[in-house]
Write a structure and sequence with these properties.
Distance between the termini: 26 Å
Order of helices and strands: EHEHEHEEHEHEHEHEE
Number of domains: 1
Shape: globular
Structural class: alpha/beta
Number of helices: 7
Largest sheet: 8 strands, mixed
Helix content: 25-40%
CATH topology: Rossmann fold
CATH class: Alpha Beta
């Protein structure tokens, strides 16, 4: 892992993507340890965390996490998730944060040396390329060791560096879930805010 102490670095964390990836690899993320881990290795300017939250209920399962993050060194970016019933009668939730992440990466690129994106979505390839053209190095954190792999080939090839979360996870693990080995269960693992719903678009597909 090539991180430099004198580089001004931003973390861009797609909350749903990191949740799905870490759960697939068998661990839960300790966000305090995650920030400390990267801050010890590079100069963190800002750590963004992105989450779409259902506002149809008085209490969101994400609220304790987002409240904690906003008071503990993270810059929280949220928007309401949209809940609807599709033509087959299934309850679905849409809350993609790709645009918010892309805009922030482009705005921060002139002010930083290194961007670390926590997502495996190949749709980010173009924004990664655009940020690189501004002279900013881009690393992508996801996993090839999950089953199936949760990083798109296009995105992995475009990034200056690929960070394998299966290798790094031990540095910011809150607790082991069931196994330290990647899960092979094909059922999708969802963010706490939509565990009871079926998302319209899986950001990792």
């Amino acid at each position: 892992m090539n991180l430099k102490k004198d580089e001004k670095t931003c973390l861009f964390i797609d909350g749903s993507s990191l949740y799905s990836t870490s759960r697939s690899l068998g661990f839960d993320v300790d966000y305090k340890k995650l920030l400390e881990f990267f801050a010890a290795k590079t100069h963190i300017i800002r750590a963004y965390y992105y989450a779409a939250i259902l506002d149809t209920e008085d209490y969101s399962p994400l609220k304790p996490l987002t409240d904690w993050l906003s008071y503990n060194g993270y810059f929280l970016v949220t928007k309401p998730a949209r809940e609807f019933t599709d033509s087959t009668g299934k309850r679905r939730v849409k809350g993609n944060m790709d645009i918010e992440i892309a805009v922030d990466m482009m705005e921060m690129a002139p002010h930083i040396d290194h961007a670390i994106l926590f997502s495996g979505d190949s749709d980010f390839r173009r924004v990664v390329e655009a940020v690189q053209r501004q002279g900013t190095r881009v690393s992508v954190a996801s996993s090839m060791r999950s089953s199936p792999p949760l990083i798109g080939d296009d995105l992995r090839r475009q990034a200056d560096q690929f960070l394998e979360l299966a290798s790094l996870g031990a540095n910011f693990t809150r607790r082991q879930t069931e196994s330290s080995r990647p899960r092979t269960n094909p059922a999708p693992v969802r963010h706490p805010a939509d565990q009871m719903s079926e998302p319209e678009d899986d950001p990792l597909s």
